[in-house]
Amino acid sequence: MSRLFFREALARAMAEEMDRDPRIVLLGQDIAEHGGSYGETRGLFQRFGPARVRNTPVAEEGTVGIAAGAAAAGLRPMAFITYFDFLMLGLDPLVNYAAKLRFKSAGQLSAPLVVKTTAGAKGQGPTHAQALEAWLMGVPGLTVVTPSTSADAYGLLKTALRAPGPVVFIDHKRLFPLGGEVPEGEVLVPFGSAAVRREGRDVTVVAHSHMSVLAGQAAEALAREGVEVESVDLRSLWPIDWDTLAASARRTGRVLIVEEGQTVCGVGAELGFHLRELVPEIEVARLGARRAPVSSSPALEGYVIPDARRIAGAVRDLLRRPRREREVAR
Amino acid sequence: MTRSLVIPADLGEGVEVRVLLWYKAEGERIGEGDAILEFETDKAIVVVTARQGGVLRRCFAPAGEWLGAGQVAAWVSDGADDPLPGDRGAPAEALLAAFETT
Questions:
Q1: How far is A5 from chain B (nearest CA, A)?
Q2: C-alpha–C-alpha distance, residues A252 and A204, integer Å
Q3: Interface check B99 vs A, CB under 8 A
Q4: Same domain, A139 and A272
Q5: Looking at chain B, which terminus has fewer C-beta neighbours within 10 angstroms, N or C?
């Protein structure tokens, strides 16, 4: 194991995969000499040269469109969208072209493309801080992954760079200042595999991306009150690891789903509903951002976005509900 | 008197830094204005310079190791034989130091 910053784990995954597969090219704003908006491509331009590490203008639709076309033509492009908010501009080539290409061509064509983008609130205000991953979960043909640790950033990105179709790889601004242990060897993380970060018998807290870090902090605080939280980090938003989620729900009987985005038609809405179909006797609750844009004011940002204290409060509320009996639910 | 050199807590909760270089060895004298330590955040390299002198008594993380925001990185005493705190977390006055980003 070696301890790496999140950006270093990403850089290691890219460098190893670019060595392995000459078809991989990187496209994005400031990714060449500058080394990436978050330092995640540092050294790659110097190592792989301008043909494989290309700066693009502030033109997200063009960047994703070129990447999708290049993927269809035989390359393996990875497109960088600095802020998730601006992937909106690239949704047409991503959703209408890349995600559907395999279906429209009866499997004759594919678009092995990775779109890497960064979500989340860290002082950038209403249009540079959104967590919109739920929008993408309903697009057939798209894989959506959201690592929360350096090891998963490494392992999921390597899997993404070998995947047959378009993958949206969503990280988070608040993960970049953190370090994490990464195995020395090549340990890939498969899609559709959630991680149980902490075992507990009282309640399951499901989260992804930075909210998994906060869920861990909430679990520690609740442990001091005698509440045993089972923390599940989704890692993949599509495909979803229903087996791990349902097994945990059966063990604890209570599930809180936490997300940084809006709860309306959010990750928790989808997961909560289907988990109740799989395990009808469970109690389910959701926690997400309050229904307001993310503010540039730290106080208002903190008010809108869930934190460890609010997660712990939502767990306490859920534990106060009477336990649903199997007979009543059926 | 022994003071603590602390990684600034205002880097943020949970934020970690990697120690790159100690400019001084344990037991070595530090003059006001001397560089003591260099560490790396996810964004920048930070050089820590003493704003008061002393003797570097203990480094808690050798080069390559990690420290958290708010953690004690080192102890610096006025004299080479001043008593040391009982443990790393014991309250101690903070060493005056400048943290400059390169």
A1: 6
A2: 6
A3: no
A4: no
A5: C
The CA distances from residue A71 to A79, A123, A234, in Å, are 11, 35, 28
A7 and B11 in contact by Cβ < 8 A? Answer: no
| CA nearest to B16 within chain A | A178
Q: What Å distances lie between residue A296 and A64, A126, A128, A137, CA to CA? A: 28, 7, 10, 27
Enter the DSSP assignment of A13. H
Task: Give domain limits for chain B.
Answer: 2-101
pLDDT at position B13 is 83
Give chain B's residues under pLDDT 70: none
Note the pLDDT of residue A67.
Answer: 98
In this structure, the answer to whether residues A118 and A199 fall within a common structural domain is no
- A60 annotated active-site: yes
Whether A327 maps to a domain, the answer reads no
Q: Quick check: A178 contacting B, CB < 8 Å? A: yes
Let me know if residue A188 belongs to a domain: no
A147 in the same domain as A203: no
Considering only alpha carbons, which residue of chain B is nearest residue A214? B14
Residue B65: closest C-alpha in chain A:
A3
Same domain assignment for residues A173 and A48: yes
Tokens of A116: 């890497």
ipTM summary value? 0.84
Q: Is A128 part of the annotated catalytic residue set?
A: yes
Q: What pLDDT is attached to residue A326?
A: 54
Return the pLDDT at A80. 98
Q: Are B41 and A38 in contact (CB < 8 Å)?
A: no
Please check whether residue A308 touches B, CB under 8 A.
Answer: no
Q: Which residue's structure tokens are 């959201």?
A: A146
**Positive or negative CA dihedral for A134, A141, A188, A83?**
negative
Q: How many CB pairs under 8 A join A and B?
A: 27
pLDDT at A330: 42
B42 and A7: CB-CB below 8 Å? yes
Containing structural domain, residue A212: 195-321
* Fold classification of B2-101 (topology level): OB fold (Dihydrolipoamide Acetyltransferase, E2P) (2.40.50)
From B72's Cα to the closest Cα of chain A, the distance in A is 18
Phi, then psi, of B92 in degrees rounded to 5: -145, 155
Whether residues A5 and B18 touch (CB distance < 8 A) is answered with: yes
Residues of chain A below pLDDT 70: 324-330
Do A120 and A220 lie in one domain? The reply is: no
What is the tally of structural domains in chain A? 2
Half-sphere exposure of A178 (CA within 13 A, CB side): 20
Looking at the fold, whether A227 and A174 belong to one and the same domain comes out as no
